[in-house]
């Protein structure tokens, strides 16, 4: 198998021109850190880096309710996933990944030379079904890869479901890697899978749900021996994170209630708007939004790429074509933006659907 050396989705996403009505974004509004009274002295701008910076490691551990020795820092969730897979799999290992899936997760496994198998999360709800996982599992499976909340659909897999998947992994000597970057948007709040046993390795960051993507504050939670292997492996990649970012991340974590203030109410309002739009639209099939920031409608008439270009060209509106997640007749929308913008964007999506059909 030839190695994948790029993410088609990330290249596409980073090179799209901005749209005024942006349903392609999958994060809450950015939080301005200059709202805090921060001095340069607090950032320790002395040119030095801090190896495995204990202050940040301890704050991430406290946020997640784990011991610090289970925390590995990384530059965002994407780098956390790269580092975790580098420690968990070797070329030729079988990796079982959900479908539809966030394309960089698949590309990362293929970059590491994995033999990728897929199991299906069936629409329109796209719930995680342990029986489907079991049917795809083999004695060669070394890693099961999930997202929770599911990217792109926002579906929440509960603790009982995760326990069942973990038991399947243990049966064949595999681990379960879960990208939990959206989990803080679960309703009601849900604890991460790191609490369910050492078979689980989880990744997350301060990006999507907290509006702090510029800090690149990501992490991995794993049992201590595996975490140490990841720290040592990271010395091949980045050695240490930018220290000013680490200091800002500490400040943000100390005041995370203030950073997050209003986000839960914003998402609840915007999910209600999206659900009202879906209920009145016979061009789409989609489960109602309950959790998170994203939804993944199926277009019942026409082609998604045609809709994408129509929305961009005539309505200054952006969506993400579902081909990047493995289903070309779907598209992803995000409802994390300001409510006025989301409401206007949904109106334009409706006009685009009418024009398309």
Task: Please characterize this protein's 3D structure.
- This protein is of the alpha/beta class and 357 residues long.
- It is built from twelve helices and 14 strands.
- The protein has a seven-stranded mixed beta sheet, with helices on both faces. Strands 10-14-13 form a three-stranded antiparallel beta sheet, covered by helices on one side. Strands 1-12 form a two-stranded parallel ribbon.
- Helix 4 links the parallel strand 3 (94-99) and strand 4 (115-120).
- The protein is globular and about 55 Å long.
- The model has no long low-confidence stretch (mean pLDDT 96).
| Helix fraction by DSSP (H/I, runs of at least 4) | 25-40%
Question: How far apart, in Å, are the first and last alpha carbons?
Answer: 41 Å
SS element count, helices = 12
Q: Which strand order do you get reading across the main beta sheet?
A: 2-8-7-6-5-3-4
* Sheet with the most strands, sense and barrel status: 7 strands, mixed
How many β-strand stretches? 14
User: What is Rg?
Assistant: 20 Å
Question: Unreliable stretches, pLDDT < 50, 5 or more residues?
Answer: none
Oligomer: single chain
Series of H and E elements: HEHEHEHEHEHEEEHHHHEEEHEEEH
- Fraction of residues in β-strands: 15-25%
Given helix and strand content, the structural type is alpha/beta
Mean pLDDT across all residues, rounded? 96
Give the overall silhouette.
globular
């Amino acid at each position: 198998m030839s190695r994948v050396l790029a993410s088609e989705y990330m290249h596409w996403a980073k090179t799209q021109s901005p749209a005024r009505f942006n349903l392609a974004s999958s994060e809450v509004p950015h939080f301005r850190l200059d709202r805090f009274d921060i001095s340069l002295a607090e950032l320790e701008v002395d040119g030095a880096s801090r190896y495995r910076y204990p202050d940040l490691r301890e704050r991430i551990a406290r946020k997640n309710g784990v011991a610090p020795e289970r925390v590995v820092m990384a530059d965002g969730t994407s780098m956390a996933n790269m580092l975790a897979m580098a420690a968990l799999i070797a070329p030729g290992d079988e990796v079982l990944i959900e479908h539809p899936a966030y394309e960089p997760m698949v590309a990362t496994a293929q970059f590491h030379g994995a033999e990728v198998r897929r199991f299906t999360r069936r629409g329109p709800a796209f719930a995680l079904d342990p029986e489907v996982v079991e049917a795809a599992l083999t004695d060669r499976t070394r890693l099961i890869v999930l997202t929770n909340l599911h990217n792109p659909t926002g579906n929440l897999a509960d603790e009982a479901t995760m326990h069942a998947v973990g038991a399947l992994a243990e049966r064949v000597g595999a681990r379960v890697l879960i990208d939990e970057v959206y989990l803080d948007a679960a309703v009601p709040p849900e604890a991460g899978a790191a609490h369910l046993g050492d078979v689980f390795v989880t990744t997350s960051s301060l990006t999507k749900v907290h509006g702090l993507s510029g800090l690149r504050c990501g992490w991995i939670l794993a049992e201590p021996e595996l975490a140490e292997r990841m720290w040592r492996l990271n010395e091949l990649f980045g050695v240490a994170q930018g220290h000013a970012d680490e200091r800002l991340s500490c400040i943000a974590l100390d005041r995370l209630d203030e950073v997050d203030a209003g986000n839960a109410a914003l998402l609840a309002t915007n999910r209600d708007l999206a659900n009202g739009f879906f209920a009145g639209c016979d061009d789409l099939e989609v489960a109602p939004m309950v959790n998170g920031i994203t939804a993944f409608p199926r277009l019942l008439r026409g082609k998604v790429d045609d809709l994408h270009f129509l929305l961009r060209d005539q309505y200054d509106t952006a969506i993400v074509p579902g081909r990047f997640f493995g289903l070309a007749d779907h598209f992803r929308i995000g409802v994390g933006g300001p409510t006025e913008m989301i409401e206007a964007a949904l109106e334009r999506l409706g006009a685009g659907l009418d024009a398309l059909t």
